């Protein structure tokens, strides 16, 4: 993605149908990208103290910062999100080919559009760019990302959380897929499980805000995370609700970035609408101001809508690749509409429902031991499980996801009579190996 021409053209756009809801919901959908972009542009001038900001002074879109940027111009936070949104609008985010397109878009952006890039993201994309001709860009990015994590153990920066908002719009009607895809897209550059957790939490919060029209309780959404880290995240969220945003600086770490953003939402500053006062609080958090404000802005826009943003912000906000506020409105609507179409087209076939219920009846946990793609998973997802899906061509795939996100196909077949027993046996084997499930005396399911 090298410029605006890589996004679907204005001439090719039909007026958005907003299959996902009424006019108020459409306003909230548009608010996700616009809120993030406005927060980004509002925080740009003050990033790492680039411009002074008195304790009682409201931030303004004056430009400058690390770019330097024009007044109202957004930074890499929104630039990377726009790449995700462009792919999501054009082809959805369900398949690996979409992730390949996202990574290729980021590599092109790094070469031709990036104004400010985090060190970790730059390192991963530079290595991926060396093999630019490879058709498996997402797999290469994931391998580089996890290799970097293995070498350093320090890959929990805020760079994947800042760009995650469009993923929520792509899966408003499919919470199970949202958890998986938000973690997968995070892992393209940030392998630490905490970065995936943060993206899952924030995307589910955005989803709930768009659907319900109100700010969700973030602590309730820790149920979407792996069991072993729920208590820690609940404690971090509670800490953010007790303390003010500036106490979480420095906030380049994904946990403190999320805490600062959530604290800003819970501790607004000054007078004005909830969106304005919370974004003022986010910028006053200091340190990585554009990123904290972009993270907070996406959720604020989801809850309160694009109509809650000041007109002067909407007139000023703009950025790579030559987009303005109305372009983000259209892009957000097309992402949501494409996501609704994909969700309707990916209804889980009856036979996959039946085998999932069979495993549950045996005492195996959905989301813990296994996942049938497309079924909503109650509670959090394990980082290691056996998956099952049915492709559009009728092919069944049985796959394994390891604790570091590695996806390995175990079986691809057009025969359900072969896919079912392999899937059930692999799930049973995983349950036995963990020691948290004992098989029935007669393994009659192998018939």
TrEMBL record:
SUPFAM superfamilies: ADP-ribosylglycohydrolase (SSF101478). The keyword Hydrolase applies. InterPro entries: ADP-ribosylglycohydrolase (IPR050792), Ribosyl_crysJ1 (IPR005502), Ribosyl_crysJ1_sf (IPR036705). Keywords: Hydrolase. The keyword Flavoprotein does not apply. Belongs to the ADP-ribosylglycohydrolase family. This is ADP-ribosylglycohydrolase family protein.
């Amino acid at each position: 993605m090298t410029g605006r021409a890589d996004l679907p053209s204005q001439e090719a756009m039909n007026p958005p149908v907003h299959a996902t809801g009424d006019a108020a919901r459409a306003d909230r959908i548009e608010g996700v990208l616009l809120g993030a972009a406005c927060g980004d542009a509002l925080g740009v001038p003050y990033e790492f103290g680039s411009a002074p900001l008195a304790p009682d002074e409201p931030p303004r879109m004056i430009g400058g910062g690390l770019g330097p940027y024009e007044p109202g111009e957004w930074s890499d936070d929104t630039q990377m999100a726009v790449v995700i949104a462009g792919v999501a609008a054009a082809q959805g985010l369900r398949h690996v080919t979409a992730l390949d397109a996202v990574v290729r878009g980021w590599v092109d952006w790094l070469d031709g559009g990036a104004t400010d890039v985090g060190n970790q993201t730059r390192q991963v994309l530079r290595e991926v760019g060396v093999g630019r001709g490879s058709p498996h860009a997402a797999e290469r990015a994931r391998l580089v990302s996890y290799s970097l994590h293995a070498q350093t153990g320090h890959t929990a920066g805020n760079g994947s959380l800042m760009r995650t908002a469009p993923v929520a719009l792509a899966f408003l009607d499919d919470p199970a897929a949202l958890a998986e895809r938000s973690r997968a897209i995070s892992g393209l550059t940030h392998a630490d499980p905490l970065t995936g957790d943060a993206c899952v939490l924030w995307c589910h919060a955005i989803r709930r805000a768009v659907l319900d029209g109100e700010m969700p309780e973030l602590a309730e959404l820790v149920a979407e995370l792996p069991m072993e880290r729920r208590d820690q995240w609940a404690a971090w969220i509670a800490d953010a609700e007790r303390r003010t945003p500036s106490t979480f600086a420095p906030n380049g770490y994904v946990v403190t970035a999320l805490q600062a953003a959530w604290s800003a939402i819970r501790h607004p500053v000054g007078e004005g609408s909830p969106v304005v006062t919370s974004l003022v609080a986010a910028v006053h958090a200091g340190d990585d101001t554009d990123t904290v404000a972009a993270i907070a802005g996406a959720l604020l826009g989801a809850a309160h809508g694009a109509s809650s943003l000041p007109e002067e912000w909407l007139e000023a906000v703009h950025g790579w690749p030559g987009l303005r506020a109305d372009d983000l409105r259209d892009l957000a609507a097309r992402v949501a509409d494409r996501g609704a179409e994909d969700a309707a087209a990916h209804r889980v076939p009856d036979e996959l429902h039946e085998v999932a219920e069979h495993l549950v009846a045996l005492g195996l946990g959905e989301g813990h031991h296994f996942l049938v793609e497309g079924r909503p998973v109650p509670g959090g997802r394990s980082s290691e499980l056996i998956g099952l899906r049915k492709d559009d061509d009728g092919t069944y795939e049985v796959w394994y996801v390891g604790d570091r996100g590695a996806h390995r196909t175990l079986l691809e077949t057009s025969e359900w009579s072969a896919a079912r027993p392999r899937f059930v046996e692999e799930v049973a084997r995983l349950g036995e190996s963990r020691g948290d499930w004992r098989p029935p005396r007669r393994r009659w399911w192998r018939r």
